[in-house]
């Protein structure tokens, strides 16, 4: 073989190796971009509303009262209404939900003595994902699973409250409860219920709520803000029903 | 490894070094792994998708950043540098380059040692594993081994 042939053969061999190399590199690029995009996209927030929105007409108290909607539990005709303004990412609300609320439900709500109403009050300045959590609970309410989802958020609070984007956890809670995943995801990743949650927050501010959980007991035309303990709630109820001192209520 | 020089018409050319091709492919894969973690650090995605281990714990630990710089960003940067070096080292004019060989060796060794330190933290300090960090550690180790033939190139060049 002449030197010219050897040179040509070497060039061809080198060129062939580089062609294979570029093909492999291209495959890695395509697979890599696809995998990263899929992984990020599957849990990304998309167009999810994360903060309160401006809702026209909330300065009008009558309209605000109409737009703000708590989620009730218990007998509509109960003489007492226990109202909580809560933030799903707030540890105090989590503690209230896991320790005090079960007693309230068992001893006061299920016995018909009181009705419990939960209003969203996400403190978005300290809990960036709590507005999203409130909206996701309302999305679960669309599928008649509000309280189940509400409890799941509080029960698993430590798993998501510090996440930048807890979408995967929210989806997981929904799946565990048998929610229609597509509908639920579409709802959470939209701005649905942002107006309702914003109205609830505005109502809270109008009522002087500045921290969470804030619990009020309403009955006989009076409202008392009470300590977030079962004893505090019970004392306020006794007072409103004319059989006791309100204790720490104010 | 086919990195022997061939004198063609008086100009030194060599077959493309296979080890640098391997480094390039591995570095590109490592880049995407690090990029995913870095995107998570930037809040671009949701929680880390983690089938095995506990990536969220590792990524939220104090060891997930060096000062203000996320470790994942260091990974992205490191892999980009290794990828760039290997691609440049595949150009006909640089296939015999000792400087590229030296930089590849040094970079992969530095990356490997840093990765070993991070793996030690996962195993004995944080005591949880992040699968992406483990994959990255494996990749940088393979890159180091793929860079070892550069030693022969360095010796050849210096003799």
What attributes does this structure have?
A: 250 residues, alpha+beta, 5-stranded mixed β-sheet, elongated, B: 159 residues, two-stranded antiparallel ribbon, 4 strands, 65% helix, disordered N terminus
Give a written overview of the molecule:
The complex is a heterodimer of chains A (250) and B (159). Chain A has helices spanning 3-43, 61-67, 91-109, 130-142, 146-155, 157-160, 167-176, 181-188, 194-206, 230-240; strands at 71-73, 80-86, 114-120, 214-219, 222-226. By secondary structure, chain A is an alpha+beta fold. Chain A is elongated, with a radius of gyration of 27 Å. The termini of chain A are far apart. Chain B contains six helices and four strands. Chain B has one domain (17-158): VKOR domain (de novo design (two linked rop proteins), Up-down Bundle). In chain B, the strands form two sheets. A two-stranded antiparallel sheet of chain B has the order 1-2. Chain B is 65% helix and 8% strand. The longest helix of chain B has 29 residues, at 98-126. Chain B is mostly helical.
Question: Can you give me a brief rundown of this structure?
Answer:
Chain A has helices at residues 3-43, 61-67, 91-109, 130-142, 146-155, 157-160, 167-176, 181-188, 194-206, 230-240, and strands spanning 71-73, 80-86, 114-120, 214-219, 222-226. Chain A has 250 residues and is α+β, with helices and mostly antiparallel strands. Chain A folds into 2 domains: 1-43; 61-240, Glutaredoxin (3-Layer(aba) Sandwich).
How do the strands and helices of this protein lay out in sequence?
The complex is a heterodimer of chains A (250) and B (159).
Chain A: H1 3-43, H2 61-67, E1 71-73, E2 80-86, H3 91-109, E3 114-120, H4 130-142, H5 146-155, H6 157-160, H7 167-176, H8 181-188, H9 194-206, E4 214-219, E5 222-226, H10 230-240
Parallel strand pairs in A: 2-3
Antiparallel strand pairs in A: 1-3, 2-4, 4-5
Chain B: E1 5-8, E2 11-14, H1 18-41, H2 55-59, E3 65-66, E4 69-70, H3 71-88, H4 98-126, H5 131-147, H6 149-158
Antiparallel strand pairs in B: 1-2, 3-4
Helix pairs in contact in B: 1-3, 1-5, 3-4, 4-5, 4-6
């Amino acid at each position: 073989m002449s030197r010219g042939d050897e040179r040509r053969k070497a060039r061809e061999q080198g060129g062939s190796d580089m062609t294979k190399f570029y093909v492999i590199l291209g495959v890695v690029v395509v697979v890599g971009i696809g995998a990263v995009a899929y992984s990020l996209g599957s849990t990304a927030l998309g167009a999810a509303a994360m903060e309160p929105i401006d809702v026209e007409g909330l300065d009008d108290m009558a309209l605000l009262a109409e737009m703000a909607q708590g989620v009730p539990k218990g007998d509509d005709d109960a003489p007492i209404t226990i109202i909580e303004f809560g933030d799903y990412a707030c540890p105090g609300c989590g503690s209230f939900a896991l320790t005090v609320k079960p007693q309230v439900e068992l001893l006061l709500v299920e016995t018909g003595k009181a009705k419990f109403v939960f209003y969203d009050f996400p403190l978005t300045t300290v809990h960036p994902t709590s507005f999203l959590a409130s909206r996701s609970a309302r999305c679960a309410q669309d599928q008649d699973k509000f309280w189940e989802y509400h409890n799941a958020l509080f029960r698993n609070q430590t798993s998501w409250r510090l996440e930048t984007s807890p979408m995967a956890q929210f989806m997981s809670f929904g799946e565990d409860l048998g929610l229609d995943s597509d509908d639920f995801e579409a709802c959470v990743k939209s701005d649905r219920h942002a107006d309702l949650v914003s109205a609830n927050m505005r109502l809270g501010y109008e009522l002087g709520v500045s921290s969470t959980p804030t619990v009020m007991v309403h009955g006989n035309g009076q409202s008392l803000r009470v300590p977030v303990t079962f004893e505090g709630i019970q004392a306020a109820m006794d007072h409103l029903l004319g059989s006791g001192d309100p204790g720490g209520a104010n | 490894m086919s990195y022997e020089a061939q004198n063609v018409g008086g100009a030194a050319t060599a077959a493309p070094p296979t080890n640098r091709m391997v480094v390039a492919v591995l570095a590109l894969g490592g880049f995407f792994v690090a990029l995913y973690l870095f995107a998570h650090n930037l809040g671009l995605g949701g929680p880390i998708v983690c089938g095995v281990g506990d990536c969220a714990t590792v990524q939220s630990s104090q060891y997930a950043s060096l000062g203000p710089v996320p470790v994942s960003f260091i990974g992205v940067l490191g892999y980009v540098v290794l990828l760039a070096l290997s691609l440049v080292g595949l150009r006909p004019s640089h296939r015999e380059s000792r400087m590229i060989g030296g930089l590849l060796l040094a970079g992969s060794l530095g990356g490997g040692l840093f990765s070993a330190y991070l793996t030690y933290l996962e195993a004995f300090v944080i005591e949880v594993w992040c699968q992406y960090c483990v994959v990255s550690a494996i990749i940088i180790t393979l890159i180091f081994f793929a860079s070892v033939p550069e030693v022969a190139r360095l010796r050849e060049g210096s003799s």
